[in-house]
Amino acid sequence: MDPLLYHSDCRHFRGDIPCRPNKQEGVHCDGCPYYDPIKENVLIIKLGAAGDVLRTTPILRPLKTEHPKARIWWLTHSPDLVPSSHVDRILKWSSENINILEALQFERVINLDKDHYACALASRLHASRKEGFTLGKYGEAEPASKKAQEKFTTGIFDDVSLANRKDYPTELFEICGYKFQGEEYIIEAPEPEVFPGLDRSKPIVGMNTGAGARWTSRLWSIENWVKLAEQVLDSGKGVLLLGGPDEDARNREIHHRTGGRAQYLGYFQLKQFIALMQQCDLIVTGVTMGMHIAIALKKKLVLVNNIFNPYEFGDLYGLGEIVQPDSQCKCFFRGECVNPDYFCLDRLSVEKMYAAIERVWHTERGKHKQEPLQVPGMILSKAPRA
Asked: What is the pTM for the complete model shown?
């Protein structure tokens, strides 16, 4: 028997198992109408928090335009949030998958994490171009190119970070040599989901009430969430409490203290959580994965911020506005409040939050204008804090 022709450079070729066209239509490589030759490999390393993975997806748009014949690889801790429509090989961080990457030649390796193990891998991989961050000779992260220098500096000096006026997508695109032009997040559309007990008879305001156990500096009080929920409910809208395991106890309490009027269905796996957020008409959240999901789903958004530079979030793609405490936060980028004078979020009133919800609710997407916001943590004209 003569050996059969096969195209190992085809985008569909697997090598270990039959490709999808062969499985579905029985075609062979000889004369296959689905033959799509690839010319190079491009790798994105973005491990990090799930929300950070999601907000990195806009870079896929110019990347695929520049490299239409590339096989795009993505190494991550959150594979469910990487869009298979734009990425050919989605790999979860593991020794087995790292072995695969180390055997390949890449045209570009773009490492957008400064975790030392991600930088070490980026340093070892074979690539014509390396962008983002690699590991320096003394074992610390360093910029892989001049384009990453500015973003690197904002991560190591608080005063530089506070003075920054670029949003994250702009910085991300600059690292890769592109100009950000409003490219949106890419998310796989959630499967239709039925949530028993969910009341959709009224438009729903989703309230993502937590920030994870690590970030107590960003927790608005349960008392304030109860008052805000009651005010929204009294306006004729529904309220749906959102969160994960860390928020379960507080959401149950808010549900109980509103007499069950604020709906709480429990916490879910990621894909179900996305489908549940899809049910909402407006989302109120802190700087969490929920914020990024809301942006990806193009939901109207009220974002609570205290410890981050608000310029990082830009105009929220015209979806809403950022609300901050009336008293300046002094705990820039800290997980716990260390200010002995006051906890800034205690000075974010329910009235201010409700007014933001009403403004965003009645504003068409893309038409909302955010007033200039105070940058937390310091007065920039003065010497940086210790």
From this structure: 0.92
